[in-house]
Amino acid sequence: MKSSRAMKTLKKSILYLVLVIMAAFMILPFLWMLSSSVKLDREVFNMNPFVWIPKKPRWQNYIDIWTKVPFFKYVQNTVFLTIVVTGLQILTSSFAAYAFAKLDFKYKSKLFFAYIATIAMPWQVYMVPQFLMMRSFGLNDKLLAIICLQAFSAFGVFLMRQFYLSIPDSLCEAARIDGMTEYGIYAKIMLPLSKPAIATLTIFTFVSTWNDYLGPLIYLKSIDKKTIQLGLKMFINQYSSEYGLIMAGSVMSLVPVIIVFLCLQKYFVEGIASSGIKG
Amino acid sequence: MGAKSTDALQKSRKMRNLKKNLIAYSFIAPNFIGFAVFTLVPITFAFLLAFLEWDGNNPVKFVGLENFKALVGDKFFLASLKNTIIYSVGTVPLTLVTSLVMAVILNQEIKGRAFFRTLGFFPYVASLVAVTSVWTMFFHSSKGPVNAMLYYLFKVPKEKLPNWFTGNLVLIMLILFSVWRFMGYYMVMFLAGLQTIPRDLYEAGTIDGANAWQRFRYITLPGLKPTTFLVSVMLTINCFKIYDIAVMLAGGSTNTLSVSSMVLVYYIYQNAFNFWKLGYSSAVAMVLFVLVLTVTLIQFKGQSRYANE
After folding, report:
1. Is B191 on the interface with A (CB under 8 A)?
2. Residue A15, min C-alpha distance to chain B (Å)
3. Interface contact A236-B253, CB threshold 8 A
4. Is A178 exposed, middle or buried (0-12, 13-18, 19+ CB in 10 A)?
């Protein structure tokens, strides 16, 4: 009996050991980032001895990054894009999804097929013709281009529709008999019920818009239009040896996403598990 | 009289139907119009473009299959195709195994389970520019801590220290980074898959004297088949689309990739926006599309198989 308990303890410890090693592997780059962000450039690579927290933390890095590059402008652009794209995405896809899930109409399956068919089509395949088209609309180097690009995804409609399908039709029927319009049913019944789906979509859209690189790289050319990712990359290319500053900028670029993620993570995990399409 | 009333009835039914359709379309329109203009139209355009020669300004020329013929002899295209495939072949199984192991461990009753799950997600939500800049510092050829360790601990002579972002090593670097970044994400899918395996199977297994490994081998693995399949398909498709990871890790300060690290999407981008060979770039894009389509079709086939099981 005793030995089997010892066995169990041993197994548990091995399990924890594996976990801790993996966790260290996951978090190490972030700790290094934080630590380097308050160091002098020459301290960053000092291995002998290596210190996690320097004796005199150089908070100045967090101030300098705002003056060396128009970081505030980048933040402004990114926040604006992320909020508008996420808002539009949720509004229009939940709206469309309601029709696909709860209403009967002509060409319903054909229209829905158009959405489904594009899910297998990577954006990278048509990004060039899309750029040519946007350019001819005069949207080159405009923030609006990024909004048009990201706000109307097939994925959003699909995700919301799947969720609405799980809400019983009888609920809508009852509301119709009570004289509620379809718009009323959408706003007063469906939307409040679909909080988990909305949270999932919010986090997906937020993270992907905030972190997007290739889209802004193609469209946003002038300095005052750039997003944090573009600006940070440009800064790295230009001042490749200012390690402390680069790390300070990096820390700031991921704080908002981490906050949003931590607030909505419960839904995020459910969303990935249930939808399993977005990658 | 009777005919007239059925006529009116029909008319009012038609009106009602029309109203119903119009209401439905009003729901769909805001999204669909944007979707049609910014997605469907460019997709159609992409297929046409692959058969054209165009620099974006001068008149368009129809060239038939010329673009595709040129691909066969283009060493940069072949390199980018090869690298993309090697990268995918390396990343998919490694990510699969690590995320599965993590999921199985975190599926047990363990203290701090939620904390570890959250942690696994950090690499995925963190911005790529930020995390790749840390990786390039870690593996910096002359100053990075990894090479410092090789030098001090393993006594590798200075001139033999590897340069991680060039030559054959660069693809290994891309693979390692991607596994690190993606495994938390796919772990969640495996965790969801694990919940679908009935608990009494494990109880029965324990009663029959199966040890932990046997239970994993004969209960968990078969039970996870559909999830494993889905994860491999998604992962493969995502690997085919690699661009920013490669540019940020191996692109240096000019964002250019050499033959050893060039990938398909990079070549699409380069041909379009650096060389303005729009038709040719679209032909490369078609190759990417065929790759993704093939994997998607395999998925459809597999899905119906698992649905029947």
Report:
1. yes
2. 7
3. yes
4. exposed
Q: What is the ipTM of this complex?
A: 0.87
- Would the pLDDT of B300 be above 70? yes
Test mutation, B133, B182, B185, B245, chain A, max A CBs within 10 A: B133
Q: For tokens 């297994």, what's the residue?
A: B205
Q: pTM to 2 decimals? A: 0.89
Strand runs labelled E in A56-213: none
SS3 A207: helix
* Smallest Cα distance from B207 to chain A, Å: 16
Selecting from B28, B127, B243 the residue whose C-beta is nearest the C-beta of A111 gives B28
Using an 8 Å Cβ cutoff, are B240 and B287 in contact? no
State residue B62 phi and psi, 5-degree precision: -85, 125
**Chain B residues closer than 8 Å to A246 by CB:** 133
How many helices, marked H, and strands, marked E, lie in chain B? 15, 2
Contact B241, A122 (CB under 8 A): yes
In the prediction, which pLDDT does A2 show? 56
* H-type alpha helices, B36-157: 41-49, 66-72, 75-106, 113-125, 128-138, 145-152
CB contact under 8 A, A152 and B38: yes
pLDDT tens digits for range A121-143: 889 999 999 999 999 999 999 99
User: Distance (Å, rounded) from C-alpha B191 to C-alpha B217?
Assistant: 17
